[in-house]
Design goal:
mainly alpha
């Protein structure tokens, strides 16, 4: 039996984005932007560890979003790949704005934040959200399955419209940490 590679990839990405990245973007990153005292945590998302001359570990935003966008885009038909690349660039532009707005704020170091930085950071988050949604739309169109839920704009009904459980996301994070502490997926079964 032959498996359609695009449907297979769509299924894997659905699990990945629904359970990890998109939930992180809504449940964690957005809340961290609301509280300036958490901006040190946000700054850590954009720093890469041990990067000398381009080598080292990528930042969390690169690892969980940008690199995934690149890999998926390269495995798609040319028309879809171009649309995905545009969505990736839109996302990168948004998180670039967010990174610049939160730059200089460190954990446990009180710093006065420019009053324009908060709206700038939220605008960067919003542009990143639109890039993720554009990527998800292309994924849904190419795969023929409407599994990738779009992230609704920030507002009082956002979590209701998003339709995902924050409690389940937190439980998943705890299970992942527990698995990592036990030595990885092969040892934590």
């Amino acid at each position: 039996m032959l498996i359609d590679p695009i449907s297979f990839l769509s299924g894997i990405l659905t699990i990945y984005f629904k359970t990890k990245s998109a939930d992180f973007y809504v449940f964690e990153l957005q809340r961290q932007l609301d509280d300036v005292s958490d901006w040190g945590e946000v700054g850590q998302l954009f720093s890469s560890a041990g990067a000398r001359g381009g080598q080292g570990n990528p930042s969390r935003m690169e690892r969980e979003f940008t690199n995934v966008f690149r890999i998926v885009g390269l495995s798609m038909p040319p028309d879809a790949a171009e649309e995905m690349r545009d969505a990736q660039f839109k996302f990168e532009k948004g998180i670039g704005i967010l990174s610049k707005a939160t730059a200089g704020v460190r954990r446990d170091l009180p710093v006065e934040v420019d009053k324009n930085a908060i709206p700038l950071a939220k605008a960067g988050w919003e542009e990143g959200r639109q890039g993720i949604n554009d990527f998800f739309k292309v994924m849904n169109d190419v795969s023929g399955v409407n599994e990738m839920r779009l992230i609704p704009p920030a507002g009082p009904k956002q979590l209701e419209e998003y339709g995902r459980s924050e409690r389940r996301y937190v439980d998943l994070k705890k299970k992942i940490k527990l698995c990592q502490n036990r030595g990885g997926p092969t040892l934590c079964k």
